């Protein structure tokens, strides 16, 4: 039998970042929290928490955190089916699911699904931002319940369903195009014109240049890790960038932004991957995500 009082203490320290706040959360003394954490660390034979400001989990501590999160989800599901089993003395505890999603999806279509799910179920969401090409790693490491990925091949222990495609347009301000591409989108001009890139994992600009010129063309870039600031940078003439259709469609219609090559867009297929352990517990989340995707993504 697992010592769930000790597991909850480890979980609270990781969530709150300190032993003092964990003690306040569980309504016990800091010394009691310290004793519980130390006792379970001795039993498993390895540290679970790196003491500091804030406290952070070790790899073993992260596994325990994920276990407790899934126990909370299971208890919430069971308690919803049999409300008479809910304790009248213990303070209410909200279940939490961890979902990994790319920044552009979060800025365009995902929040509708997440909001609908959380309002219906009361479940909290712990959202992590990751490029869709790398989100799969979170699932294979057991660090999330579900993820929006660019990979159709399911991660180990996961099920996958297609969501649709997020379309990206290579856009810039008319003034930027006039200044940097006076003779059109030539390879020479492209290699000199600054672009906007979200982070080192963002390959969309490279993919667009490969489609345009037959091979990737190196070019200067600004690093702008924000979907909305990305659009703003294009509007202000800072550079050109691959912007999701939902964020630039009105600017394209008004002429504040133009496509570098009209009609040459990139469609990025997206998939919903969910851990089988959590799938039944989060079936409403999957339903919400699929519904929003059907309405807002391209098929």
Attribute tags:
elongated, two-stranded antiparallel sheet
Summarize the structure.
The chain is 47% helix and 19% strand. It has 14 helices and eleven strands.
Give structural notes.
With 299 residues, this protein is of the alpha/beta class. The protein has 14 helices and eleven strands. The strands form three sheets. Strands 3, 4, 5, 6, 9, 10 and 11 form a seven-stranded mixed β-sheet that branches. Strands 1-2 form a two-stranded antiparallel sheet. Strands 7-8 form a two-stranded parallel ribbon. Helix 1 (4-16) packs across helix 3 and helix 6 (110-121) packs antiparallel against helix 14 (283-296). The longest helix has 23 residues, at 59-81.
Task: Give the secondary structure arrangement, pairings included.
Elements: H1 4-16, H2 19-26, H3 30-44, E1 49-50, E2 56-57, H4 59-81, E3 96-101, H5 103-108, H6 110-121, E4 124-129, H7 136-140, E5 146-149, E6 158-172, H8 174-180, H9 187-192, E7 195-197, H10 204-213, E8 221-223, H11 227-235, E9 241-244, H12 245-254, E10 258-259, E11 265-275, H13 276-279, H14 283-296
Parallel strand pairs: 3-4, 3-5, 7-8
Antiparallel strand pairs: 1-2, 5-11, 6-9, 6-10, 6-11
Helix pairs in contact: 1-2, 1-3, 1-4, 2-3, 6-14
Q: Please give the share of residues in helix.
A: 40-55%
Q: Compute the CA-based radius of gyration.
A: 23 Å
The quaternary structure here is single chain
Strand content: 15-25%
Question: Roughly what is the average pLDDT, rounded to an integer?
Answer: 92
């Amino acid at each position: 039998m697992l010592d769930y009082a000790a597991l909850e203490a480890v979980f609270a320290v990781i969530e709150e970042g300190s032993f003092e706040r964990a003690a306040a959360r569980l309504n016990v003394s800091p010394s009691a929290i310290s004793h519980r954490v130390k006792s379970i660390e001795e039993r498993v034979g390895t540290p679970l928490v790196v003491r500091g400001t804030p406290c952070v989990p070790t790899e073993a501590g992260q596994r325990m955190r994920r276990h407790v999160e899934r126990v909370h989800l299971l208890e919430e599901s069971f308690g919803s089916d049999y409300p008479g089993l809910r304790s009248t003395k213990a303070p209410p505890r909200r279940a939490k699911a961890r979902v990994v999603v790319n920044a552009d999806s979060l800025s365009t279509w995902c929040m509708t699904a997440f909001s609908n799910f959380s309002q219906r179920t009361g479940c909290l969401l712990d959202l992590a931002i990751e490029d869709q090409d790398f989100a799969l790693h979170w699932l294979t490491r057991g660090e999330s319940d579900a993820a929006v990925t660019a990979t159709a091949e399911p991660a180990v222990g996961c099920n996958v369903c297609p969501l649709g495609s997020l379309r990206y347009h290579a856009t810039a301000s008319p003034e930027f195009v006039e200044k940097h591409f006076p003779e059109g989108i030539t390879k020479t001009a492209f290699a000199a014109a600054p672009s906007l890139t979200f982070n080192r994992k963002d390959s969309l600009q490279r993919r667009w240049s490969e489609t345009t010129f037959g091979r990737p063309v190196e070019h200067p870039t600004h690093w702008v890790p924000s979907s909305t600031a990305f659009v703003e940078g294009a509007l202000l003439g800072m550079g050109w960038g691959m912007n999701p259709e939902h964020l630039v469609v009105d600017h394209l219609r008004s002429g504040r932004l133009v496509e570098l090559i009209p009609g040459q867009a990139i469609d990025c297929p997206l998939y919903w991957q969910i851990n089988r352990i959590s799938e039944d517990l989060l079936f409403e989340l999957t339903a919400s995500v699929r519904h929003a995707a059907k309405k807002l993504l391209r098929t």
